[in-house]
Design a protein that fits this description.
It is built from 22 helices and two strands. With 499 residues, it is mainly α. It has one domain: Up-down Bundle (Sodium/glucose cotransporter), CATH 1.20.1730.10.
Amino acid sequence: MKYAVLVLYAVMIVSVLVLTARKSLSLKDFLLGGRNVGAWMSALSYGASYFSAVIIVGYAGSMGWQFGIAAAWAGIGNAVIGSLLAWSLLARPVRRMGEKLDVGTIPGFFEKRYNAKWMKLAASVIIFIFLIPYSASVYKGLGTMFRMALGIDYTWCVIGIAVLAALYLFAGGYRATAITDFIQGIIMIAGVLLIIWYIIRGAGGLKEGLAQLGQLEGSFNSMAITKENAQPLLSNVLLTSLGVLGLPQMLHKFFAIKDTKSVKRATIISTSFALIIAGGIYFAGGFGRVVLSKIPDATYGTAAAAVEQGGMVMDQIMPTMLTDQTVVGIPDWLQGLFIVLLLSASISTLTALVLASASVISVDLLGTIFPKRTEKQKTFTMRILCLVFVGLSLVINFLMQNTPIMQLMSLSWGVVAGSFLAPFMYGLLWKGTTRLGAWAGLLCGFLTALLPPLFLGTSVAALSGVSGMIAGLIVVPVVSLLTRSTLPPESILKTAFSK
């Protein structure tokens, strides 16, 4: 039965591909859907790109095991900061300024807003390099679930996922992904609600599950933030929430939305979606210790003991619960739906990452080196680079098999958001942001986020990423106030901030 659910999903993907595939897409159509994507599609595309197997498999399982019910703070942060604040603060100015400056990428924004060609090139390189580990973590989360649920060899599984994502992105561009994301967002809502119900039922019900968490050593049944969990918990909450305001694959949705009137409706939809998906999956993950203590393991006695003794990695916690037919009682057909849920979320995220990365090379990097390319050549290059990025992220996935999903994503998000959050946000909202101020914020955030993981390992990536974002937010206004002579020409500011 679960295979039938997968077949239905594949039919849906192929149908969208056939209906949206066009050979004669302009670059603006391919990259931004013609800046004509409505509120519902923009909001669900944003949410579906936000939450992938990285969150559902990697973060929810790992944070739920570490913090119990307090892991739900991550979901609340994702909804309030990563969705409500992001849409309320940035969506309108991004859409308006993107059209005024005729840009659709963060590097392009940096060049036009700050009159800084080299800043565009630096941003392009950072995006292309550091979104690859995030893409690799998406493959890893989904491949782990496929292997445990269907017994499919991991290698062939992730290759199949890569081919599927590359094909429909190559053929239809952003509009194809937005339409598919809309459908996949609805699948995700249904799937997550069922996950919550089954996992809590497997824990013995809400009251019993909380009681059993309370019997464990620690505060696993409480939302309280304690001295013991404050630093790692808040680091991950801020990284996955505030960091979104500096991620190119998320900000891309604002460049493409139909008009500023659509933003208000999209804000409500996106925030509600995030609260259901992220809040629900982290809350469910908080019962992992109780549920795993009831699932038998041939070697360690229970699945919980297997985690404690190193026989099971954190990335296997959620797949173990979502494939259990004894304690959790997941029926065969529902396993198929859960797989489709993860596939939907991951394909959405993967295509958003690919489009963001390919665009900075085709539009920003090659556009600077070869400015006389035709529109047809630019679009064809974009399509080819989409395939190249998918291939590179697949290779990195195989090379970093021993790195936990959570650490891969933290490194990627931390460096990219640390580099771009401050110079992008201040550039949108404050005319006084100077070129040197933006450069200082980018470099300071980049180095603060990257150097600790390089020397101390990826386990510190979340904390260093948050530190990079905060450092940038402090440095940009300070340096801007000291370097007024590097303000962009008044003509640029007048165009950028015109209503």
